[in-house]
Every structure is written in structure tokens, then in C-alpha cells.
Amino acid sequence: MTNSAQSGIVFSSAMDSVLTELYQKSGAEKFGISQREFNVILEEIGRKYLATNTSEANARELYLSLRTEELALARACACGNENAWETFLIRYREKLYDIALHIAREASAARELADSLYADLYGTITRDGKRASKLASYTGRGSLEGWLRTVLAQEHVNRYRRQKRFVSLDEESEDGTQFAASDPEPVCVVDSRVENATDEALAGLPSEERFILASYYLDGRTLAEIARMLRVHESTISRKLEKLAKALRRQILSGLRRRGMTHRQAEEALEVDVRDLQVDIRQRLAQDSNSPSFPGKKVQARASDGPG
Amino acid sequence: MLDLPKIVRVRLNSPSNPLGGHPDADLLTAFAEHSIGDCERAQVMQHLANCGDCREVIRLAQPQIENLIVRHSSSPIAWLSWPVLRWGTLAAFAVIVSVALLTKRHEKANLESRISTQVARSDQQITKLPETKLSSTLESKHPESKNMPASRTAGKTALQPSRRSQASYGAGIAGGVGSGPKNKLTGRAVFAIPSGGKSPPPSLFERKADREQKQVEKDSAPSAASETVTVEAEAAQITDMAEAIPGKAKEPQPKSQNGTAGGTIGGLVANSVPHANQPGREQMSLAKITTIPRWTVSSDGVLQRSLDGGATWETVPVEKNVIFRAVSVVADSVWAGAAGGALYHSADTGRSWTGIHPSAKGAMLTGDIVTIEFTDLQHGHLTTTNGETWLTPDGGQTWQKK
Lengths: 308, 402
Hints:
The complex is a heterodimer. By secondary structure, chain A is mainly α. Chain A is built from 14 helices and 4 strands. In chain A, the strands form 2 sheets. Chain A has a two-stranded antiparallel sheet. A 4-stranded antiparallel sheet of chain B has the order 6-7-8-9. Chain B is rod-shaped and about 100 Å long. Classes of the chains: A mainly alpha, B alpha+beta. Chains A and B meet through helix 5, helix 7, helix 9, helix 10 and helix 11 of A and helix 1, helix 2, helix 3 and helix 4 of B.
């Protein structure tokens, strides 16, 4: 029986056999990772994704869902194993540049993005005298290729945010934004009942429907893109959007009538230009702070992982 | 796509900077690849609903479409994939079931038409037959007709032998349908001919037939004249009988290939679809038979129908002042022919009628229809008093004149 002191999970002998089986299946041995080291990696992943007093069944389910072969490769690379790096480069070198080109859509930017990630994967930053490889954060929840794609996408979004934040005056001058007329002072005359009714209707939406709404109306994603992200048919998204838009409008009108408006007043209020609306930033920020941290108890966003 | 009110967009965009932290690359990858549990997926989805940056990451991290297309198209036997096989199997099964149902329905229609014809024949009650010595005539010409105990017939102007079974009877004819001239008595039919029955008196047409009958009798041996006879005859005998009457001086013709009998006498007509070698036919239960409508034309030209196995007959109103001469039934399809070339068709067992006006190459059907024979729902022919034969291959849509 194995006692995982840090995670608090007590593994039975059956679980030990599962870990042994996973180790053999992963091929970690050929990259110089021992069974003990492999178990430590799995326990670390367990601590990250499992609750403190989770059952052994949940732990077993998590471990069996891991991509252990790719996990062993990534962790061996992070440890500087040459065989592992050779395998990694054979498998992912070309793919990494292709993915970067797909994301950046421009050759030089793609090359720069891929090189930057290579540096992170190799580990240019040292911690306690050791190179800290980004591959050490790979946990095998998804495929290694998918993880590389996600990491590249995060890096691309981060760069975009940084570039937007540090736009030079010359660039602003070229864009004409420096001399753009300032926005007129918002006229704060809108009835707060409209905002409340809207928030109420939005709060009642399931997260997936809100995701679809935001992707389509805020991000400007196409139906096909949303369908790909959710792995459903395009027509399904189309029907859902149509239904959602109608339902939202109906619910908001109903909320406005409950707040004392006539049907006509509610219709007119819903068509008010957004520039006339008073947006209480402080209230919104307060609401945001109440949103649940992610994911669950354990997964706190790390600055290096998050896009923001 | 329906537009969203601007206020909704604004409020939807408000919590775009969640402070709870972003999911790591592993979870986003697992989400994109649908390899996480429902609980974690719900958490990621909740974050994505509020975080534009992570939605953008998920979008960018999607595999390239070209790769997916290449991966799909590179499959060497894509047509053998499970969805194709599944739908293919389903389609094949549907076709098989459809064919089976159609075949069964066709067989059922044939069976019903056979039953209706058998009913029309088996329980014909014919009364007051003029004396006839036809049976002895037939016996003298055909030794095998000895099996027929007696037969009586009223006069008839033209009995037309048919390759298909058609036994038409005037105001009193006994007959039967056999399965073939050389067959044993498989098409046995029993006709009771009570004296003083309900049949109407012979019409002028029938009296003319009587005279011809007497002409036949001159050349034949005398036979017993009974008021009521039961006829049990082979089809060959009936065929010969039918041929003997109109043939007058003719020699008996070879028996029809199908071994069926045909004939028309007076205003009473019954048609049947032939059956060769169906030994189980006469075993039909009477209860089943009596549920099928029977059709007849009375001697005074009225179309009649019986719904109780021939016990009572009701007049079927088709059109006023029409003198019917012949009727033919195939399943629910009823054809009734009348004087002056009037032809009517009902596809619903006589509930509604449609007048048919056959024409071919500019010629119209004008003669009195004396026989109608439909072998199935589509194919049929009729004959007129002026010797014309009209055929239809498509249920009366088009006609050919012979």
C-alpha cells in the first residue's frame, strides 16, 4: 500500500498495480525515468487535479485518462534526456512551425513565435540553478501536440496584448488614433431597470449558451468556428443562436414589464443605444471577483500559463 | 441571424476579465479535445463564457481544417467506414421490406379477386331454366363430361370462350370453373338451381338465346329436364359448353391453355381471375367468403351487389336510365358495362363511380357492352354487340380497339 503523503490519497495495492501498468505502458524507462520518479509525477498531477479527500476510484479514473506515453516524453525532455529530445524534435519540430504559422498567419511572426516557445520548452530560465522547462508543466490531460498548440496560442494572445498595451506614439500617429476625436461623454440617463433585466436574463443562461452567444456576438466567430470548438454541427449552433436571441429578448421584455414598464416602453428601452447606458464598472468588477476561481480547489492560474 | 439588442452585448461583455484565474494549457487542451469529465468541462465552459482571451486561445488551438480534411480524405476505404455501412445496411433493409410488402399486397389483391370471383360463381342461384339438353350434347361430344350430372342453360347469343376464366351466365346457367382441361376436379363449383326462384323472367335477349339454344338441341341428344340441378363440372367441360352454344355448327375448339371457362348469357355476368392448379381454393371458409361483396347484373339491366353472400341483393345506383350488361370485379375495382357503350368504373367497391369513355384513333365505343374481363387492376378488355373488342393495359387510361 502506497501512502501519498502530500496528496493525502492512500493507494491500495490495486492502485499500485495500475501505476505499474501505466509506467510500463508509458515507455518512461527508455528515457531514464524510474518507476518511483514516474509515480512522483503522477502524484503531482493528482495533487493538482484531485480534491484532498478524493476517492481512489476518482484517482484511478484520472490516471487512466492521462496520456502517459507523451507525459513520459515531455517530462524526460524537461529533465534534459537526449533521447527524449531527439524523439520530441522528430515528432514535433515541423508541426510546431506549422502550428505557429497557422496561428500567426505570417511567416516571420510564426518563426519568432515558434522559436520563443522552443526556448521556453528547452528552459532558458533557471530556478535554483536548474533549467525550468515549460514541458515540466505538461500533465498529459490532453495530447502533447494539442498542448503545444494551446501554449502557442496563449503565447500569441499574450504578445498581442502586450503589443496593444505598448503601442508607440509613432504607430498611433500612423494609425491616426492619436488625433482621433475623443468619445463623447456618456449620457447617463438610462433606466437601470434595463440593465437589471438584462443581467437577470443573462444570469439564467447555461454557461454553454453564454459561450455561444459571446463567441458569435462578441468575438465575431463564425457558426462553423463555434461548431468546431463544441464539436457539433453548424446547423445546431445556428438553431441555438436563433432560439437564444429570441428567448433573451422575450425574457428581458418580461423582466422590464415586471419592473413596471408597459410593453411598448420595454420595447423602446431595449432599443436604446448602448452609448446611453450607464455601466457601473465598480459593480461589474465586484461581481467578477465573486466568480469562482479556476479550476476547482487546486488549479490556480499561473502567470506563465494564463493568456492574460 | 437574429440581431441581439445592444444592451445584451454590453452586459454580456462586462465580466470579460474574470479574476478567478485562467485554466492552464492542459485543461484547455483537454477541453478542446473533449477528454475531460463533465464536471471539469462545465468549469472550463463557465470560464470560457466569461473570458474572451481563453475563447480566443481555444479557437487558435483548434487543429487546422486542412489537416482534418487530409486526414479524412486519406482514408483508403472511406466508403467502408461505419457510418456508410450503417446507413447502407439500413437502406438495403428498407428496400427489402418494401419489396416484401409490395409482393404480399399484390398476392393479397390477387387472392381477393379470386375469392370474389369464386363467390360470384359458387353460390349463383339460378331459377327457371328453360329445358336444355346441353349436358347430353356435351356428353356426346366429350366423354369426360360424364362427370357432370346435369347442366342447364338459358339461351345465349354469344358465349365467348376465353383464355382467362370467364363464366357468364344468363337468366339461368350452371357452370363451374376448373383448373385445367386435363386436371382433376379442382375447380369444382356447385350451383343450385331452384325452380321458381327470385330470378327475373328471361328478357328478350334471353329469349333470343333460347331460340339458339333450341337450335343446338336439334343436333344433340335429349337430356333430362329437371327444375333444379346441381352442377359439378370441370373447367374443361364448362369451356366446351361455352363453346358449344355460340358455335352452333362449329366443331368444338381446343380447350384454352389456362383451362378456364368463359361465357356470357343474358344480363348476368360474373368474371373471374384464372387460377391454375390451386387445390386449396375450395377450402376457403364460407364465413370469409361471405364478407366479400358479390356483384351481378339483373336481367333487366340493374347493377346489384350482395354483402351477405348472395342472400339479399341491393341495387347499386350508378346513373339513371342505364341498362347494364356486364360487370367485372378485381379486388376493390369494379367495372360495369352498359348499353350504348356506357362504361363505369369504381375503385372503392362501388362507393363512387366514374364514367369511362374509351376511344382509340378517333373511334368511340358505341356498341352495347356485353362482356367485361379484367385480369388484374390494369389489364382488361370488353366486347360489344357489334363485335368490337376494346383492350386497356393501364386500368382504363388508354384503350385499343380490335
